Amino acid sequence: MQAYNRLPSSGHSTPSPPQSPSLRSPRYRPNSARPKSTRPNSAQPSTAAVSLRGLPHRLAWLLLSLLLRRQGIFLFAPLIYISGMLVYMGTVSVDEGRLIAHRPAPGSLYRSPQLYEKLRPDMDSDNSSADAITTIWKNSYKGGEWMPCVNRSFGGLPESNGYIYVEANGGLNQQRTSICNAVAVAGYLNATLVIPNFHYHSIWRDPSKFNDIYDEEYFIDTLGSDVRVVNEVPGYLMERFDQNMSYVYNFRIKAWSSIQYYKDNVLPRLLEEKVIRISPFANRLSFDAPPAVQRLRCLANYLALRFSNPISTLGDALVRRMKERSISSGGKYVSVHLRFEEDMVAFSCCVFDGGKQEIEDMTAARERGWRGKFTKPGRVIRPGAIRINGKCPLTPLEVGLMLRGMGFDKNTSIYLASGKIYDAERNMAPLFEMFPLLQTKEMLASEEELAPFKNYSSRMAAIDYTVCLHSEVFVTTQGGNFPHFLMGHRRYLYGGHSKTIRPDKRKLAQIFDNPNIGWKAFKRQMLSMRSHSDSKGFELKRPNDSIYTFPCPDCMCRVNRTEGGT
After folding, report:
1. What is the DSSP letter of 105?
2. Where are the beta strands (DSSP E) in 279-431?
3. Distance in angstroms (rounded) separating the CA atoms of residues 7 and 2
4. Radius of gyration of the chain (CA)
5. Is the dihedral of CA 64, 67, 68, 74 positive or negative?
6. How confident is the model at residue 173, as a pLDDT?
């Protein structure tokens, strides 16, 4: 009987070959006659020699016979090999002094201070560069420049379908996302939006309300023809809930839900209840949305949201003071968003040059802000890998080195937007050495001017936002909502170009950890990075990109085209 062959054939099946016979040594075959030796006894080796030489041979033949007889034992071959290697290694004595030292991966260590000391003489004596602040933006967009074109409605609104109340969580710009998305949802559902409530967070610790940060009356008036906005839900509706908003039905909506989800699931309940609550609301609307939704987002972000009068007044005053201090460059200055506060350094889990004190400070900060998050059983933190991946915040020293390499000399006026820098006296010293004209809001404003805003992180961030918005160059050193909103807002104001330097932090990690690099090679790398940022200044929004970072083409229109454009 032939075995079934699963392989395709030409019309007939081919029988399987017969099984190979088991291989055995003739020495151990049963009933096999061993030929007797015809050699004289004098040629025979001694009995002791035969026993010494024959035992290993016999064991080898026996092992081979077993393996071939029972082929399944080959499954244990890797274990046998590993066991043999372990036994062998256990018999080898290794002199500790001859062990090969572990070499850290390039970019895994923080050695920027050593690089700064090496490059500083050549950096200070370099007078070859033109003034970077007047020559940095050279890229021209083939499609031409862009201009704001947010269309506004005229005429009355139909009867409202009900009231939507949202809670905006997070910091200043995460709350801004919630506000703009809430406007878009309310307008699309023909609902009335209640002024969003700002959720108090243990990290930001800012109890500010909407009207503390934004001009509430201006917000309501600007949206008047597109979306109804009120301060509170009418009392007659709240009677059903004992005037307690927490009793109102709360939708738990998944992040990045489509606008169709709101129409299919939220609108029917809104029509039934007449008032609904959505909490939390950050990132609860997809960036990929129809033009009607995008128009409302543009309207809210770029036209309706204006900082409150106290914030605008101080912010505009600091912009004027920065321009006055930049008279040698035509009133142009550089703004840098530096994230080297204690909580940011702690959250990053990166290691810098603070030694034992830094370790103690970061351990305490992680426990305060994220109790138990970083000490869970099984969690492994690899600071070197984090640095290689470009996830470590840039230090003030690294920002200074980068900017000097990009051609900004020590006479450049710089505005530093940041919170309280960790170990500021030590970490800020190199940056002031490289840029003695550097300013912060605490240096530009008097104590009396800042007093109403201190202890309110969102209000202080709003002042920084204003000064950064009007700088000639904006430098972002860490991701987050603050730089993303600023880039989009700057594109909206400056013809579609963000005028923003976005360094490649993975590449920076490799460069800062290279002790052999010279000033000319370092500068060449930084100028290339600067040029890349210029080329990326004009970018159009892709389907899943944030409209708040890429306002073209939803919030802007093309006004002209250069020769050869499409």
Report:
1. P
2. 334-337, 414-417
3. 14
4. 36
5. negative
6. 93
CA distance 376 to 380: 9
User: Is the preceding peptide bond at 291 cis, omega within 30 degrees of 0?
Assistant: no
Q: Which residues contact 332 (CB under 8 A, 6 or more apart)?
A: 133, 134, 323, 326, 413, 471, 472, 473
DSSP string of 177-209? HHHHHHHHHHHHTT-EEEPPEEPP-TTT-----
Which segments within 500-566 are labelled E, that is strand? 500-501, 556-558
Q: Structure tokens of 361?
A: 């400070």
| Lowest-confidence region among 50-59, 337-346, 463-472 | 50-59
Cα 128 to Cα 249: distance, rounded to the nearest angstrom? 66
- Specify whether the CB–CB gap between 531 and 123 falls below 8 A: no
How many residues would you count in the chain? 566
Q: Could you tell me the maximum CA-CA distance found in the chain, to the nearest angstrom?
A: 126
Q: What is the pLDDT of residues 529-545, one digit of tens each?
A: 999 999 999 999 999 99
- Classify 150 as helix, strand or coil: coil
What residues form DSSP beta bridges with 439? 415
Closest CA to 497 of 544, 412, 556, 565: 556
Q: Residue 417 in 3-state DSSP? A: strand
Alpha carbon distances (Å) from 224 to 70, 160, 181, 221, 311:
86, 13, 17, 5, 24
Handedness of CA 234, 239, 242, 248 (dihedral sign): negative
**Percent over 90 (pLDDT), the chain:** 71
Strand partners, 192: 163, 228
Produce one character per residue of 20-33: b if its CB has 16 or more CB atoms within 10 Å, e if not.
eeeeeeeeeeeeee
Rounded to whole angstroms, how far apart are CA atoms 141 and 92? 67
d(CA 358, CA 370): 17
- Cα–Cα separations (whole angstroms), residue 352 to 348, 360, 396, 505: 11, 13, 12, 16
In 3D space, the residue among 319, 279, 268 whose CA is nearest the CA of residue 471 turns out to be 319
57 against 14, higher pLDDT: 57
* Structural tokens at position 106: 């390039």
184-195: pLDDT as tens digits: 999 999 999 999
Q: Each residue of 210-245: b (16+ CB within 10 Å) or e? A: bebbbbbebbbebbeebbbbeeebeeeebeebeeeb
Express each pLDDT in 328-382 by its tens digit. 999 999 999 999 999 999 999 999 999 999 999 999 999 988 888 898 998 899 9
The answer to whether 271 and 162 have CB atoms below 8 angstroms apart is yes
Residue 18's identity, in one-letter code, is: P
Structure tokens at 299: 């309207």
The whole-angstrom separation of Cα 484 and Cα 83 is 56
pLDDT above 70 for 251: yes
What do you get for the CA distance between the two ends of the chain, in Å? 75
Q: Is 396 left (phi over 0), alpha (psi -120 to 50) or beta?
A: alpha
CA distances to 203, 359, 362, 370 from 366, rounded to whole Å, are 11, 11, 6, 5
Report angle CA 367, 369, 373 to the nearest 5 degrees.
60
DSSP-derived letter for residue 340 is: -
Question: Contact, 107 vs 385, CB < 8 A?
Answer: no
Q: Are strands 556-558 and 146-148 parallel, antiparallel or unpaired?
A: antiparallel
Q: How far apart are CA 205 and CA 182, in angstroms?
A: 23
